[in-house]
Every structure is written in C-alpha cells, then in structure tokens.
Amino acid sequence: MNIIDGKIISEQIKTEIAAEVRKMIADGKNPPHLAAILVGEDPASQTYVASKERSCKEVGFTSSIYRYPATMSEAELLKAIEFLNNDDEVDGFIVQLPVPKHISVDKIIESINPKKDVDGFHPINAGRMMASLPSYLPATPYGIMQMLERSNIETEGKHCVVLGRSNIVGTPVSVLMSRNSKNANATVTICHSKTKNLAEITRQADILIAAIGKPLFVTADMVKEGATVIDVGIHRVASPDTKSGFKLVGDVDFANVSKKCSNISPVPGGVGLMTIVSLLENTLKAAKKEVYK
C-alpha cells in the first residue's frame, strides 16, 4: 500500500513555482500577487488563510489579507470585491468561504472578475472548464488531479467513483476525470445522498474520491481490493488519545480502508496541502496571463 503524500507533492510544486517567480523577477516583472478577503472569525478559515499566506511567502508571491468583521454587510463586501477587481497590482484573489449567512455566496462569487477568480468558482470559469477551454480550475479538484498524475496512477479506462456532488469538489472533479485528455479518460460515476445501493457502486471503483463531508463514512467493506482512494474530507473529532482532546480525520476510515488499497491519501497531509498549491498555480497563471490573454 502506497501513501499518496500531499506534503511531498506540494513541496515539489512549490519548488517549481518558486523557480518561475525568481525568473519573473530576474526579467524585471513583479512577483504574482494573491489577495484574500476574510469575513468573520471562523477558526478553520483563519487557519486556512494563514496557511495560504505562509505558502505565498515560501514561493516569493506578494500576499494581502483583507479582514472584516462578521457584521459586514453584503453591500460592503461587494464594494471590497470591486476594489480588488480594479486593483491592477492584484493578479488574483479569493473570498474565503464560508461567509456569514446574511451574505449570498452566489452573489459574491458572481461579482468576482473571472480573470482574477483564482478559486475557479465563477460561472464563466466553470463553463470554460466544462468546455475544456483554458480556465482557472477549482483548487481542490486541480490538486486531486495533480496527486494522481504525480503519483503515476493510471486513470485511462478506469472506473472512478466520486462521493459527493458539490460545485467546489465533486462535480468539477468528475468533469476533469472524464475529460479526453492525458491523465484523465476515466469512466465516472457520481454518488450522493440519494444514491441507492451505494456500497455496491463504490466497490466497483478503481479510483474512489470521497468528498461527502461525513467523518469516517467510507468503510473497508465499501472499497475494492487494490483501489486508489483519495480522501477530500477533513473533520475535527473528539479523541481521548491526544493532548488537545481532538484529532483530524477524513471521510475515509483510514486505518481499515488502507489495508485494502493500492494507494490512499491521508488526512491530514493529503488533499488539503494540494488545494493551497493549486491556488498558487492559478495565481501564477493569472500573473503570466496564461488563461485570459
């Protein structure tokens, strides 16, 4: 059984990005600039944004964080987005989700300039992805594809089962896995909360991508012998065995499922790290005008 180590793969990609940034600077260009808007004090969001800021520093990016209180109005947030849309010094930016409930997520996503939408959530980028046109790919699906490619995992002709149909992970990764392109060409099945005989379907998967948002949901009896399992979930659960009283787990029962796998990504240390470097890659593309000329 092989552990798909997100730390090793993400460090490889960071090294490659840092080399490109050094070349840009040597050529007299500005380093890529990634900005983030953070509304409220959600602990997970704060941790994630801080991690993005550290990663930017590691690869030589300029990084800006705009912090606002949870009481910020939707109109005020839209004004902050408009400011970044028009700031020529910012190559790409994200609005960290979730936002407070009084703010429409759809309205926020649609207000971001697609050319700066390095999260890849804007409908224009989603549509371009569907049509296999150049676009910013959503960071987590992009990271998953990189994990499979850089781990030399065969995808062509394989049956890939995706657990979850969110616009952020499940739906876009199913599109990418089924594309007629190198390191894709899989036959894809999407499962969700209304799927009947779920375990029967997951047991057919050569590649199982778990993004269902339920801790330890995928058990050993749901997985085919020798399958590749990518665990997208991350959950904080109580644990008497740790000093903090909790531990991080994924959507997959790693201890038991790993005994049946040929490849599996861990939590933590897997997809989460890849999500951040994929965001950096999108920002580099934005700075180099590779998607929108």
How does this model look, in words?
The chain has 293 residues and is an alpha/beta fold. The protein has two domains: 27-113, Rossmann fold (3-Layer(aba) Sandwich); 139-272, NAD(P)-binding Rossmann-like Domain (Rossmann fold, 3-Layer(aba) Sandwich). It is 38% helix and 16% strand. Strands 1-11-8-7-5-6 form a six-stranded parallel beta sheet. A three-stranded parallel beta sheet has the order 3-2-4, with helices on both faces. A two-stranded antiparallel ribbon has the order 9-10. α2 (43-59) links the parallel β2 (33-39) and β3. α1 (6-26) runs parallel beside α10 (271-287), α6 crosses α7 (170-178) and α6 (139-150) packs across α10 (271-287). It starts with a strand and ends in a 6-residue tail after the last helix. 42% of the residues are buried. The mean pLDDT is 95.
